[in-house]
From TrEMBL:
It comes from Desulfomonile tiedjei. This is Long-chain-fatty-acid--CoA ligase. Residues 440-515 form the AMP-binding enzyme C-terminal domain. It comes from the Bacteria. One of its GO terms (molecular function) is ligase activity, forming carbon-sulfur bonds.
Amino acid sequence: MGNPGLILKELSKYEIGTYAEILYRNALFYPDREAFSCDGKSLTFRSFNSRVNRIIRALQDLGLRKGDVIGVLSWNSMEYAEIFGAAMKGGFVISPFNARLQLEELRSLVQYSEAKAIFVGPEFTRMAKIMLEAIPGDRYWISFTEAEDRLLSYSRLLENAPDEEPSVRVERNDPLFIFFTSGTTGTPKGAVYTHARAIEDTKTYVMMNCIQPSSRFLMIMPFFHIGGAKVFWSYFYVGASHVIMKSFDAAATLKAIDEEVITDIHIVPTHLTAFFSVSDFEKYNVQSLKRVFYAASPMPVELLKKGLQVLGPVFAQGYGSTETGPNVCCLRLDEHQAIDGTSAKYNVLFSCGRPNLGVQVRVVDQADEDLGPGRIGEIVVRGNTMIEYWHEPEETEDTVKADWTHTGDMGYYDELGFIYIADRKKDMIISGGENVYPREVEEVLYQHPGIKEAAVIGLSDPYWVERVHAVVVPKNSGSLSEQEVIAFCKSKIAGYKIPKTVEFVSELPKTPAGKVLKRKLREERSDRAS
């Protein structure tokens, strides 16, 4: 760093409203506070800043310049956080790749991103060697472990690089992130965010959830998922400490909450189900938790009720997407207390909250005309959204219209502005001419005491055109029958919404963020039918 005696002058080194400023600010104000710990290693904010500077210098020595894309193919690690930091201060654009994709999918994304340097975790060196031979063009492949073949060594690059502050001028409108859509409805697309859009989204999360520098955040979501990464950097924004886990494991997560005295965690609904499935759940002390933030997919209300009863009033919900920030709506901690309130307040638990500060939301019909309360339409968003799909102008025009980002999510709102998600537009089932929203059926299925997880999809049918089909994971194998599940639904929802067929499986296919891959469920069953 510069002259520590002139701390306020040093603070003005980077432009306000960029992550470069935040990274340097934390190093100046909290130099000896633990920023990250992972696998027994830890970094203070000062040492993190120093290592980030070294990475930037090393990449510059390789010939990379401001605006160049750097990719990452890895599970969560300390090094992963450092590459984010290097993009934030070095003016690079970071493109995290989904570590669960197959070789051909990854090869396509690497080419699409135009990454000039790709950082690779230890589990992916073999795949990296195949890709570097197969993909045309010059780029550097850098291993988080040792150098081998044409892979450079991350540690050796840092050893030979100085840690002075870089001379790059990072500006608010510079692109920073390329986050890829999950591909639940097709080929992944890269959503591009500038520093300004991303910082405003970060500030929204901090304000709506009252995040404090004293927080200890446990990172279990993957860095390549926009929700995981953006929540992570929201805690960094205020100077909080982080514990990074390589990936999610229910028992290991409970142990970390206990031993690390974790106050905050970001989960998806399937994580909560997994916690309660741990046989010795009661032995872990989780009383330090102050916030359990859930997002990425709707939380079944029966599961949420159990969470509130077991963990207490610690839940807050977020709604958004890869293209929308992702902090669009929030159902705050205090709003979850509706479980003990009146019927009207209780209904709020079925919502995803109201629009966040700095975000505007509408519900529109197919002509983009506004719909009134209670009427289902597409949710569109204006605010801290992506600026474009990377190199996809036509796709961008189809999604962003007159500055409103079309989410593809169907929903409605009530008189108080609480928004309720019905389902993805592409997941809606039209059975016998009636619209069926799978989430409504799934909410009923989750009320059955013998059902652990459930997904509802539409399948081709000669009579109904599409029939409502439930794919169910029972709590105990062989404990349920199709007739029992259908009978359970009959007393709770209209006849046209009741599953015509029920299938039992041991698990549901999911994205790394825990979102059920309904496209895969439909494709697999379509293949069987043909």
